[in-house]
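> tool_call: predict_assembly(chains=two)
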Amino acid sequence: MSALVIPSTVRRIAVLGAGHVGPVIARLALDAGFDVAIAASGSPENLELITQVVMPGVEARWAADAVAAADLVVLAIPLHRFAALDPGLLAGKLVVDAMNYWAPADGVVPMFQGQQLSSSEIVQRRLSQSMVIKSLNQIAYQDLEDGRRPEASPDRHAIGVAGDDPRAAKLVAEVIDRFGYEGILLGSLSAGRVLQPGGPVFGAVLTRAEFERAIHTTAVQA
Amino acid sequence: MMTFPLVLGLDTFGDHEHDAADHPLSHAQTIRNVVEEGVLAEQVGVDFFGIGEHHTDDFPMPAADVVLAAIAARTKRIHVGSAVTVLSSDDPVRVFQRFSTLNAISNGRAEVILGRGSSIDSFPLFGYDLADYEDLFEEKVNLFAELLKGGPVTWQGNLRPSLRNQDVVPYTEAGPFPAWIGVGGSPQSVVRAAHYGFSLMLAIIGGSPARFRPFSRLFLQALEKFGREPLPIGVHSPGHVAETDEKALEEFWPRWLQIITKMSKVRGFAIPTKESFMFEVGPQGALFIGSPETVAQKIAANLTTLGANRFDLKFGMPGLSPNSVTRNIELYGTKVIPRVRELLAESPRRDAPQIISTRI
């Protein structure tokens, strides 16, 4: 069992999942200067050609090796595969949950169905020995690369960061910042429900002001 | 390097049309209109007419192959195919039989594009679980590849009954008909298409088409790795052509907003703005909307960037009138297609697969 360690800084990022979302996040991380590994459910050999061509510079590894070496792990597997993921694999790690649950589009996943909790809170309950932060789930993967802007840019776009540990959330917000987005801290993991499908900012590419206005409007309505 | 002929086609999802007074036509009339649209497409010089399987009131088109057969019976040259067939919720043997039959009716003009499409409605309809989507697709593509080889089939899987030395008719006359896999954004799907020897159809419906460029490279390298010859690469994107840019936008935008707003509720994403729409219409976006010149320039530029030899414009949108749909088809055939051929003949690029301007 690994004790939970929030690193003082993030250098190495592991991305779990090599479908639509994982490779895009891996490229974002690589472009931002991080040391990046990617893993899917099987052997890294299956991913070698894909990493070489689609994300050159990213290392394909076994999931356990990629996670062990990482300061931060991005979870980008299909949500219906999450129940089969061994929580021990991520024990002690800072985990960014980039997954989404929306039954009308993706089908019912019993673990997440009919819950009052946000999907990331359910993920956190299962990954009880990890620190889960909800982020990178809200902007569509096809917009993630084009949506990046330099730090001083006035039309820089926002990505929400929801977590219960302020230091961990701040660390993730700094990573988001290096990716090319304004990381906006939402105060708690449960506050991350505004980032989910059906929420006011899901699927939208917004500036900080637009993002805050959208969330504020929801808060007033609620 | 192997070259493939340039193919410029049209796709429809059987978009539910409205009359001049903006009243929805019946599903039956919409389907009859699609038959006429397919016939018109041949008359104006379009190479391929594709119909995407859908199961909703906005897109009442669950039996695309039946409609394709009607078009095939009234045409001589145009290729007819699916765009896409939702293989995961269908039976590969039946899909093979239907398209092999279409191939017979059309004298060898049938094609099939397998994929998920944007339609998920077939899953509850036929009792499949969306969570099994990947496994179903993998296994059924595997069987479909076996069926295409011809001859008695012996096959075993987990999600469909096995076949033992089973004859599957009708036999094709001249080898397998063209089969493609439609790919959204997953590199693993690209590798799978190469693995089974299917051609690659890039479904680019949002964001920058250029970001698909690594997928073309991945496809060619994967084919090489699997010891296969190069295969064609196509692009499918939505759009609308009218006499001028302004007219095309004016006709398309309200219908687009309506359908995307509806989709955003089902899919849970925020409603797009005019600004995001205009980005998609621009050179970095995935919508091919405007005058023939605007659309032709964008098609030529993207085929070159992506190293693709085929472009299928998904025309129509629920609520558009039959008149504007017909005009779109005429302009695409008579103005856009010749202009794309001209543009690509003018500026061959050394780093892209060479494209030759002959019709299929």
